[in-house]
Amino acid sequence: MPTVDHLLSVRVLKAVNTFYCHRFHHLDLVSPPRLPPTGPAILVCNHTSGLDPFLIQSVCSRAITWMMAREFYEMPVVEAVFKHIGAIPVSRSGRDTTATRAAIRALHEGHVLGIFPEGRIERQRALMPFQTGVAMMAIKTKVPVYPACLDGTQRNKTMLQAFLESNDAQLAFGEPLELDRSSTDRDALAEATARIQFAVQSLLDKLRPR
Asked: In this structure, is the dihedral angle defined by the CA atoms of residues 187, 193, 194 and 195, taken in order, positive or negative?
């Protein structure tokens, strides 16, 4: 169970992050988050830069447990922050069953799990194909999926550039998705994944290119 000191430090981090994202990066919240006040949820979003988890967290009242590539998780300075907030590092060299188990455990404990289903950062504005892991977890755990979408000038920058240069970012959230939970066979996963990607694409279509 989190200690009082831990909860206080997380609140301080959230306050600093909110100021940083809204004042320095001029974050434009096009539509607000629809996350439930309590209980597990899966938040999915396209991936524009290393700044994405910070931008999304800045407008969400609930703490998000992020799944992220291990190479970003282990970067100096931010590694301590990611460990403190309970982020889950994912190895991109094949299926990472340890990370998957940690993600499902976080959902069973009632957390909001944040995932970037493209699996890597976009280099263009068009979405890349979504991986089926999100659909698999959503169907198996019966946890609702909430789409979000980012766009802005943070694209095509190194992680250091994205953090240190001022950006104009846009963020939109959508309604929870209703998925068929009756099967996890290949066709069912493909259909659920397509629905998740379509929801994110619909949000992207509403954002103005920067």
From this structure: positive
Residues 156-182, mean pLDDT to the nearest whole number: 93
Three-state secondary-structure class, residue 170: strand
pLDDT of residue 2: 53
For residue range 69-83, what is the model confidence (pLDDT) as tens digits? 777 777 766 777 777
Residues 28-66 pLDDT 10s? 999 999 999 999 999 999 999 989 999 999 999 999 999
| Residue entry with tokens 């909860």 | 7
Give how far Cα 75 sits from Cα of 68, 117, 153, Å.
12, 21, 22
Residue with tokens 């994202």: 21
Structure tokens at 135: 């659909």
Q: CA 92, CA 51: separation in Å to the nearest integer? A: 19
φ, ψ of residue 68 to 5 degrees: the values are -145, 155
Spell out where 54-190 has E strands: 64-69, 88-90, 112-115, 145-152, 169-173
What is the identity of the amino acid at 5? D
Place of tokens 């009082």: 4
If DSSP codes are grouped into helix, strand and coil, which group holds residue 57? helix
The edge-to-edge listing of strands for the beta sheet with 64-69 is: 28-31, 169-173, 145-152, 41-45, 112-115, 64-69, 88-90
Which residue matches tokens 């979003």?
45
